[in-house]
Model the fold of this input.
Amino acid sequence: MLDGKEIDHLPAGEGAQARIKPVYETIEGWKQADRQCPLLGGLPAQAIKYVRRVEELVGCPIALLSTSPEREDTILVQNPFEA
Done:
């Protein structure tokens, strides 16, 4: 927010940038383990809801999703090289 108004860009001016306040959104979490889940549909419902909300906020689909630091815990949601 900038001066009480929600904005969707970074202002060019240094003074305006200094006045920006973050907008926080709370999303319900989940307790089920999601490691070694090969498909997005296998994740807990709240995890899928979180992913969809992130897609909505950034304005593009998520192609890859990692559920741990391990390479084998990466879910290919959609091929990033195919339209």
Notes: The radius of gyration is 17 Å. Residues 45-58 form the longest helix (14 residues). The helical segments are 14-19, 45-58.
